[in-house]
Amino acid sequence: PNGWEARALDQTERVDYPLTIPVPAGPSADAVKRAADLLAGAKRPMILAGSGAAMSGAALRKLATDYKIPVLANALARGLVPEDLDLGFSWPLAQPAAKQADVVLVVGCRLTQRVGFGLPPRFAKDAKFIQIDVQAEELHRNRVIDVPIAADARLTVEAITAELARLGVKAGGAGWVNDAIAPRLARIEELGYGDKTPMHPYAIARALMKEMPEDAIYVGDGADIQNWMHAILRVRSERAFMDHYPYGSMGTGTPLAMGAATWAKEEAALTGKQARPTVLVTGDGAFGFYSSEFNGAALAGLRLICIISNDGGWGTEKHGHIKAFGGHVNCELGHCDYHLIGEAYGAIGRRIENPGDLAPAMKMAFAADRPVVLNVITDPMAGLLRKEDPRVQTVAFEDLVSSLKTHYTPDVA
């Protein structure tokens, strides 16, 4: 095989292959009119944006700002409309408001478990749904859609915006979303302050938000820590958020962050600007899967900051065990010195135990010219509250089981 791979090739003539670039499919005029009519008559319209909207940021922002329609964004759509809690919200944080929407415009978002399948209890049973997706098979998945549109997201959003203008529709407001999530925000503000050690994961989130530039790329991994981060994290720019959720496995955030940081470095080489920093927030369990990637990150000189919420165990499983049978089995990992792994590979490593040390550590990390691993010791029992208080649950699925049974079980005479 080596000889075959190393053989010389004599290519004397050029071979040209025709490159066919697909033309985006536009929506039908009838579908646009039906969608605009629904939105025009809505009292509490909302936009649910997913990864399929990632290339439609300008169109989405215009629709949202012109008609004051709140955007609840998930996955790669986060940051298309800045998450300022005015018009832009993250789905994990603002999902309690979704059940109050009477018309939902779904843009490039698959109606999967993360968004409650588009069903109660996440959404009102009688809510009207408009769904835009370039993949026709995604329409009507898990829920019958009132206005299904198999077309390009940008072209369709632009057409709907133009039709609303033609109809003379007046702008509404997103205050109802803030009213709906006010109890959640109040509860979040009660947690994570002070000098208590081990610290609450919210302390990490707040310290990060104070130092993280708006153009930073955030990558989420782990379990408990991502639930906590979703409450505080605000994504304010495009192409600035990824998490491991689509892969269904912890640990994949590290290679995702490697790819993002590499892209940022290549982009900087083309523009002559400093590379956007990439921030990976992960758990101690998740960090263990692909920690050797930091060797490559150090060798490549990537601006990659890894923040580990080290609660000394498999926190989500531990708290689930406690809730189920009052104890836990095989969930302890210990507060290991994971930062030393980063140092061994050439990164800067720090162990942080006191909340007061977070701010200077964050400043150092964003100023560094090589990878940084911050090993932050957090409260092993903090996540138990997340199992018990829905106000702090940003990734919830337990309540969906009864909904699916109700929705899919046929009536028995």
Summarize this structure as a short list of keywords or feature phrases.
single chain, 413 residues, alpha/beta, Rossmann fold, 2 domains, six-stranded parallel β-sheet, 16 helices
Explain what you see.
- With 413 residues, the chain is an alpha/beta fold.
- The protein has 2 domains: 29-179, TPP-binding domain (Rossmann fold), CATH 3.40.50.1220; 191-392, Thiamin diphosphate (ThDP)-binding fold, Pyr/PP domains (Rossmann fold, 3-Layer(aba) Sandwich), CATH 3.40.50.
- The protein contains 16 helices and 12 strands.
- It has helices at 2-5, 29-40, 57-67, 91-94, 153-167, 175-189, 201-211, 224-232, 253-271, 284-287, 293-300, 315-325, 338-344, 358-367, 383-388, 400-408; strands at residues 45-49, 71-73, 88-90, 103-107, 128-132, 147-149, 217-220, 241-243, 278-283, 304-310, 348-352, 372-377.
- The chain has a 6-stranded parallel β-sheet with strand order 3-2-1-4-5-6. The chain has a 6-stranded parallel β-sheet with strand order 8-7-9-10-12-11, with helices on both faces.
- It is globular and about 60 Å long.
In short:
With 413 residues, the chain is of the alpha/beta class. It folds into 2 domains: 151 residues, TPP-binding domain (Rossmann fold, 3-Layer(aba) Sandwich); 202 residues, Rossmann fold (3-Layer(aba) Sandwich), CATH 3.40.50. It is built from 16 helices and 12 strands.
